């Protein structure tokens, strides 16, 4: 691919997710045309991506001389129409509001070719909903990245009932080409695949805290040192195979009726939220985050994520082109 010019892609919404998605395409050699409704997000894109890439260099995932060519492939435009011009693959990462997404998908069709693929990074809305007002819903597909998107390997690829098979295939191919672990999801369920599992774990963890079974620190340590440890290396179904399915089915039958099934947020968590404590972003949640600790924890988290990426995925996940 070195020396080849790849056809440009667009990213709409350059916030937490969009800037990392733009980075991933740019690092893999694609010219990226970005747009965000907020001028500050447009103005800060290149600096945010530069910082991320410097972290990649610090752990040895990329060489320092890859940074400037990758940044040079990022262009930010003042209007959505300009950003979309000449692009063959568009990812929207604007806010999670169905009306906004429906309007966006219907509007942007006018600015791209008929075979341009339009992808939604929605965490919850299936394509059948976001594409409800589109003229050509067969070109639309969910590509669900995980935060931080430039580090976490998996992207769920979820076609809607009207999505054309060739769109799904081209989407899987480009995501794999830019180094992501693209997983096709064959049925359009709310929450797709991963978030359904995450919510099941969240419900039980919050319930255990609510019942006073262990402290915040103890719960985090117990899960990290067991489930988390194993899942960083192998998948849950393989874990079950090694545990023995005779044992696992007996454990399931004994414990499944015992675990929480309620759909209300447990009191212990609701009280924290009612006090205006939303976690890292407000300085307090399950833990306290005075500014120095917040910076330290965030940087430690990113270093750990990058180490995991290097350990398990770097050869397939990051394929920079200079
Ligand atoms: N944050 C996560 O962990 C996460 C994970 C997976 C998926 N998502 C999904 O990704 C999408 C974006 O989430 P985020 O966390 O990056 O949000 P964010 O608030 O950080 O970023 C959204 C950006 O979109 C911009 N924007 C809003 N309306 C716009 C429009 N019409 N055109 C262009 N830009 C517009 C905003 O100015 C903002 O910069 C949501 O659908 C969200 O559900 C988020």
Number of domain modules: 2
Arithmetic mean pLDDT:
94
What letter string, H or E per element, gives the SSE order?
A: EHEHHEHEHEHEEHEHHHHHH
- Identify the CATH homologous superfamily of the largest domain: NAD(P)-binding Rossmann-like Domain
Largest sheet: 8 strands, mixed
**CATH class call of the largest domain:** Alpha Beta
Bound molecules: nicotinamide-adenine-dinucleotide
Distance between the termini: 9 Å
CATH fold topology of the largest domain: Rossmann fold
| Anisotropy-based shape | globular
| Cα Rg | 21 Å
Q: Can you tell me the CATH architecture of the largest domain?
A: 3-Layer(aba) Sandwich
Beta-strand percentage range: 5-15%
- Weakly predicted, low-confidence segments: 315-322
Give a description of the structure.
The chain is α/β, with parallel strands linked by helices. It folds into 2 domains: 9-192, Rossmann fold (3-Layer(aba) Sandwich); 194-289, N-(1-d-carboxylethyl)-l-norvaline Dehydrogenase, domain 2 (Orthogonal Bundle), CATH 1.10.1040.10. It is built from 13 helices and 8 strands. Strands 3-2-1-4-5-6-7-8 form an 8-stranded mixed sheet. Helix 6 (127-130) links the parallel strand 5 and strand 6 (140-145). The N and C termini lie close together (9 Å). 28% of the residues are buried. The structure holds nicotinamide-adenine-dinucleotide. The site of nicotinamide-adenine-dinucleotide has 24 residues, from helix 5.
Detail the topology: elements first, then pairings.
Elements: E1 9-12, H1 18-27, E2 32-35, H2 39-58, H3 67-72, E3 74-76, H4 80-84, E4 89-92, H5 98-108, E5 117-120, H6 127-130, E6 140-145, E7 154-159, H7 165-177, E8 181-184, H8 194-210, H9 216-231, H10 236-243, H11 245-255, H12 267-274, H13 291-317
Parallel strand pairs: 1-2, 1-4, 2-3, 4-5, 5-6, 7-8
Antiparallel strand pairs: 6-7
The structure holds nicotinamide-adenine-dinucleotide.
The site of nicotinamide-adenine-dinucleotide has 24 residues, from helix 5.
């Amino acid at each position: 691919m070195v020396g080849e010019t790849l056809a440009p892609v667009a990213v709409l919404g350059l916030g937490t997710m969009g800037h990392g998605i733009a980075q991933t395409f740019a690092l893999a050699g694609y010219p990226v045309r970005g747009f965000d409704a907020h001028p500050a997000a447009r103005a800060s894109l290149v600096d945010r991506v530069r910082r991320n890439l410097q972290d990649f260099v610090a752990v040895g995932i990329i060489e320092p001389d890859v940074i400037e060519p990758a940044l040079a492939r990022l262009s930010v435009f003042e209007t959505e129409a300009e950003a979309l011009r000449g692009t063959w693959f568009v990812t929207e990462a604007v806010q999670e509001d169905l009306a906004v997404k429906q309007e966006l998908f219907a509007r942007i069709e006018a600015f791209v070719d008929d075979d341009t693929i339009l992808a939604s990074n929605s965490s919850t809305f299936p394509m059948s909903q976001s594409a409800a007002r589109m003229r050509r819903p067969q070109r639309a597909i969910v590509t669900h990245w995980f935060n931080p998107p430039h580090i976490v390997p998996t992207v769920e690829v979820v076609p809607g009932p009207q999505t054309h098979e060739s769109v799904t295939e081209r989407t899987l191919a480009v995501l794999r080409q830019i180094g992501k672990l693209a997983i096709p999801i064959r049925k359009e369920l709310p929450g797709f695949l991963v978030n359904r599992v995450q919510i099941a774990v969240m419900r039980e963890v919050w319930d255990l805290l609510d019942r006073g079974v262990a402290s915040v620190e103890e719960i985090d340590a117990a899960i990290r040192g067991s489930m988390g440890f194993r899942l960083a290396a192998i998948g849950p179904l393989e874990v079950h195979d090694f545990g023995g399915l005779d044992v696992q089915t007996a454990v399931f039958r004994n414990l499944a009726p015992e675990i929480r099934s309620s759909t209300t947020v447990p009191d212990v968590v609701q009280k924290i939220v009612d006090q205006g404590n939303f976690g890292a972003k407000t300085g307090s949640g399950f833990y306290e985050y005075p500014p120095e600790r917040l910076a330290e924890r965030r940087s430690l988290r990113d270093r750990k994520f990058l180490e995991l990426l290097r350990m398990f995925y770097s050869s397939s996940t990051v394929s920079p082109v200079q």
